Amino acid sequence: MGFLKKVSNSIKNPKRAALVVFNKVDEGAGKKIFGNTTGVVRSMSGRSKLNNLLDPELKKTNPELFHLKKHGFTKYGNSYEKSLIDKLSEKFDELVENEKTSFPIGGYKGKIYSRAIRNPEKCFPELVKIITKDVRDFLTGYYNTNYKISHIFCGRNYSVPEKIKNETEMFSNFWHMDRDPSSQLKFFLYLSDVTEKDGPFTVQSKVRTKELIKAGFGNRDHYDLPLDVLEDNTFVNKMTGSRGTTLFGNVTTCLHKAGTPDEGHFRDLVQFIIDPSDKPFSDDWINSIEAYTDLKYYDPKTDTKRLITELNA
Ligand SMILES: [Fe+2]
Questions:
Q1: 180 alpha carbon to ligand 1 midpoint, in Å?
Q2: Domain residues for 26?
Q3: Residues with Cβ within 5 Å of ion ligand 1?
Q4: pLDDT for 189-205, tens place per residue?
Q5: Residue 57 Cα, ligand 1 centroid: separation in angstroms?
């Protein structure tokens, strides 16, 4: 949705209109200062909480952490028990298309293209075993402070017809940067095999992102750059991997998108959203997960989306 449309839609709600204007100004300043669309406030927020030291020794001792700090994303060889993945993906499969345990989050003209599982922290207590000691040590090296897992998201993306896949955004499948504090990190777990045909997490490095912003990248609603520049294969990383693959991504400083699965394909994903904390990490973390307020519910009857928080209000 364009800026003016957003403002005019918000005119009945002055607070919302002020927020739209603030975000626009903040985004413009953030592009100039930080080379991202995340905004100045969110870029500044929590910066000091990251361990930004890029010690060349780290490249040898912990290449995955080095890659994450330098480029903003990395594949991660996690040490969980392999049998856990079978159990998780079987349960995921049972829940994700059941109307009682899941809900649509993306669609177009009444057809659903993405679904999320309700209360994943309650459905999947097994997820505590994915956050191994190795993951915690890795996060200790990434942050300067304590950290916590704030939210969990579990969802399935489906194939989108060629005709509409570049016109309407279904499930974060347009290039963007998340509007969250730059200290936020996402940890992804694939629960289906993800080849290029299955809509992999697709990301560009921090450096390339800054170059694209400098070259004039607008935002997810209007790129303002030719696709052959924005999607130059030299710089685009399609993060494929078999079921059980884990990845880290700082999605506030790297341009990224969800790939769109080809016809007959889908992608199952768990996301852990990690933030700095003033308390030490707790073994009981799964019982302190907060509701994921960014999620929108897609109503196929009215072909509209509403924030989950508004629905529950
Ligand atoms: Fe995103």
A1: 10
A2: 1-34
A3: 172, 178, 251
A4: 999 999 999 999 999 99
A5: 31
